[in-house]
Amino acid sequence: MARVVVEVMLKPEILDPQGQAIARKLPQMGFEGVAAVRQGKRFEIELDGPADEEAVERIRELAGTLLANPVIEDFEVHAE
Fold first, then answer.
1. Stated pTM of the model
2. In angstroms, rounded to a whole number, what is the distance separating the alpha carbons of residues 52 and 56?
3. Nearest CA to 17 among 32, 36, 30, 33?
4. Three-state helix/strand/coil letters over 1-13
């Protein structure tokens, strides 16, 4: 059994209000020196078979059509 991880993040030019809210709260909680925060999503997908080139490509297609909105989000696929 293999695992593939898909990490989804808003594109840099897209406003991230949740990340901004977290960044504003950090100094109040005693965490200094953080310049910015961006939030994202992580999906861990377990495969029945190996994470070969074909399987990873299928997960890439899945990520681009279901897990991420390619208009406003970037994604990376990693086989573990």
1. 0.87
2. 6
3. 36
4. CEEEEEEEEECCC
